[in-house]
């Protein structure tokens, strides 16, 4: 296999943050000799998460075996995932924000047509459903664990227990029509054909649509990590990967924790 120099569209703060966490992890477990120093392992993991190359491609680029690539990436991802904010942390942040935005997105996966639990009728493809909380400016605050793509947004929100803590904290949360019946402080548009809505209801729906548009920015931020555009790993690892990416994003931006 041929190898060539490449680059990552990430700042050096991503590398410094992950390298520091890996050094702490190595000291904690008493690790001695490694094929790659912590900085190179961090770069390896970032390349995997950001660009999504295969293990064989990374092995050729870093001069190590594919099994070593797998172990090093898995270790780095698990270290990062352990630092991800919980829903409780997100609600604590939301209290200072005034209101929150909630939406779901599908992370495409490599599955056959027979895998019905992972098939989303809405998106017409296989994937995993994750719920996203963003602030009023569209900044990513929290991402839920991944559920099979066949799970609807309202069911996913209830499974993760999203409405209850937001309601208890008195935080208004704007969502789309897919969250009808969520209750509490979750606000959704009026249902029904546009022509059957009153002028006041149409005005409310237009206003809410403008507010909710910012959550798409948070989802787009999440998917700048190209690995999430087509996941080929086991579905049991997807939650850990998403949490690792969330940790990197929050740690290297000005978004308050």
Description of the molecule:
The protein is of the alpha/beta class and 257 residues long. The protein folds into two domains: 12-81, no CATH class; 87-232, no CATH class. Helices cover 46% and strands 13% of the residues. The protein has nine helices and seven strands; from the N terminus they run αααααβββββααββαα. The chain has helices at 12-29, 38-51, 55-62, 66-81, 87-97, 153-160, 163-168, 199-222, 238-251, and strands at residues 99-108, 119-120, 125-134, 140-143, 147-148, 172-174, 186-187. Strands 1, 2, 3, 4, 5, 6 and 7 form a seven-stranded mixed beta sheet that branches. Strand 2 (119-120) and strand 3 (125-134) form a beta hairpin. The longest helix has 24 residues, at 199-222.
Gross morphology: elongated
Q: How helical, in percent, are the residues?
A: 40-55%
Alpha carbon gap, first and last residue: 43 Å
Secondary-structure-based class equals alpha/beta
Task: Profile the largest sheet.
Answer: 7 strands, mixed
